[in-house]
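REQUEST FORM: STRUCTURE PREDICTION
Request ID: SP-0412
Submitted by: Lab K.M.
Chain count: 1
Length (residues): 97
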Amino acid sequence: MRKDTPPEYTGVSALAKKWACSTAKIYRMINSGDLPATRIRTMIRIPLAAIHEIENQTVCPKQESPASVASQAETHGTSITSANASLRAARIARRLN
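STATUS: Completed
RESULT:
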């Protein structure tokens, strides 16, 4: 490999540092198929072309007004399921006893 040519791949930790996220997030993206990668023995390398393609995509949806977000929460209910609520209630009861 010639030293004067730029690399065509980068590693998981370098990409995580560039994107300011954890390496676990990068591994999850690779495992889900959102981020293509190549394995060379124990090393995982991500093509720079794929990174540039992801970075150039629009990642932020249109901002919604707080009123529409509140109305969506009212129609869909809370994010706490009844199972989670009962677990939380049991933990609180143990603390009080």
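NOTES: The CA atoms of residues 71 and 77 lie 10 Å apart.
Reviewed by: T.R.
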